[in-house]
Amino acid sequence: MTASPPAQRLTLFDLPLDIVSLEQTLNILGGWMFHAPRAPHTVVTLNPEFIVQSRTQPDFVRAMQQADLVTADGVGIVYAARQLTGTEVPRAPGMDIVRGLMARHGKELRVYFLGAKPGVAEQAAQNAAKEYGIQVAGVHHGYFGPDEDQRVAELIAAAQPHLLLTCMGGGRQEIFNQYWRQVLNVPVTIGCGGVIDVLAGTAQLAPEWTRKMGVEFVWRIASDRKRWGRAPKLAQFVQMVQAEKRRK
Predict the structure, then answer these.
(1) What InterPro entries does the database record attribute to this sequence (predicted)?
(2) How many CB atoms within 10 Å of residue 65?
(3) Residue 212 and which of 37, 53, 89, 100 are 20 to 30 A apart at CA?
């Protein structure tokens, strides 16, 4: 394993993107957790919505620019990298990273579950411990405001996890991870959206065939009315890519 990030990093809309496969990602994060002096690292799983959202959120932009590793979460990012840089970037989605780390490290891995509604993180932690044998370092719901950030960060630091799953929605989770990284002092902190809900069984993972084709976001939007509001952002992202391609 290696504790070093990949040498190749692209820039999409002023945001970094590492050319790194899922297997390489797991190796890098494993190195940070177990084969290097304890130091905080943040991971971003970049998707089209993050890029659209970041246009109006400078704090979000800074959090992603300062991340130690930025992977391509969805097919939209692969498409943008191909269109704007001519580079084929492999995907390393958040759900696959989390499951891969748990499966690979099992009982030696201490995980803190942060996010979702009260009670959901507890269920996710129980399910993960049963399936992968991981140690549960702690749990905390995601329904707290910025005025409580320091308290929560200090709770997590005291638990000394190897891995922190921050699932509080795009922007909020990345800003929290980056701003409090020194207090947290967690070897790997990753913003991973709905992963806790999936692990808890309160949200359904997209079918395997959609994930292999890289179109699971279409399935999610079509199958859940709550996600219908995301469709305009995806359309806006495609327009952004095409406009940037013409400009270049």
Answers:
(1) WecG_TagA_CpsF
(2) 15
(3) 53
165 vs 197: CA distance, rounded Å? 12
The DSSP secondary structure of 12-29, one letter per residue, reads ETTEEEE---HHHHHHHH
Residues 6+ apart with CB under 8 A from 200: 116, 120, 121, 123, 124, 127
Alpha-carbon distances, residue 191 vs 122, 130, 243 (angstroms): 18, 23, 29
CA 173/CA 202 separation, integer angstroms: 20
For residue 233, give the nearest of 72, 84, 50 by alpha carbon: 50
pLDDT tens for 53-79 read 999 999 999 999 999 999 999 889 999
Is the pLDDT confidence value at 231 over 80? no
Helices (H), 106-139: 120-132
Residue 163's alpha-carbon distances to 66, 99, 120, in angstroms, are 18, 12, 18
Other CB atoms within 10 Å distance of the CB of residue 89: 23
**pTM for this one?**
0.89
152 and 140 Cβ atoms separated by less than 8 Å: yes
Cα separation, 125 vs 118, in Å, equals 13
Q: Residue 39 corresponds to which tokens in the numbers above?
A: 């130091």
Chain length of the chain: 248
- Domains of the chain: which residue ranges? 9-200
**Ordered strands of the 135-140 beta sheet:** 69-72, 42-46, 188-191, 163-167, 110-115, 135-140
